[in-house]
Amino acid sequence: MAIGALTQDSEHEVNPEFLIEFSDNRLLIDLCGEYDRNLTAIENKLSVHIQHRGNQLAIFGEASDQKKATEVLQALYERLENGKTVEDGDIDREFRMVRSEKDTGSDGGDQLKIFAGGSVEIKTRKKLIEPRTEAQKAYVRSLFAHELVFGIGAAGTGKTYLAVAVGVSMFINGHVDKIILSRPAVEAGERLGFLPGAMKDKVDPYIQPLYDALSDFLPSKQLAKLREEKTIEIAPLAFMRGRTLANAFVVLDEAQNATTLQMKMFLTRMGEGSRMVITGDCSQVDLPRGSQSGLANAERLLKGIPKIGFNYFTSNDVVRPPLVAAIIKAYEADEA
Fold it and tell me: What's the whole-model pTM score?
């Protein structure tokens, strides 16, 4: 890596000057961003001030914040060296990774530590997807490693988005022959009543989020063609009964709204060469009062099976605006 050694110009622990030297001034310009906006973003997250001096960056602030800022800058510069860009989401991801590695400490029992080294990337037709938290990183590794994976946790943590991205990646690389996305047709606390139109018009409102995810990874013309050929299917959970899903990547979204019978039906659809992903949030069950969530029941029954991956997300893994994470934390505290 073309980053020079870190030097300290003062012996004081508070507000010393740390200098980082970069060998490629053009990459340093990209690192700083237009009008130094990337440096400003880092300053806003930490109690530091960063000055651009030629091919160096000088960091002022407390030693702990300087160390974090240095690690983030080094990671972002390595991205640029590898031909990637630096966006706001990349800065946020590097901060989360630095924080999570620090929080795990040296406890060998922390399962996420085994993913601390090495990058995890998902290649699709339109973009390169990179996990932003250690929990997301572990989840993506699990999606590639296991035939059946559960992603359980708060909304906005990327459970469905990453699952669909992995499905598209496996399809592009020939590991599966088709992609099947499904979710229960359950309203979130409202009764919409009779919906006009053909069957597609009736079910589209329930599965629109899955369309949105797919359109992020595949060009619109290719997506339309694949759907027309039924190589990519998006259907309500009720349509899965009686099928055997072979050589397919299958995602069940909003699984907390599947009944226990529906969940059993869905899990037993798996055929040869298939992979299944079940995602949901047990705190957002919209089933009628007295109905047990199939997701909670499956978690209880299947957790002891070693070949099934269970991955959990918290409000710390929310990758939507910070206000969303704060709202989820408030609800979690109230429930606790």
Answer: 0.70
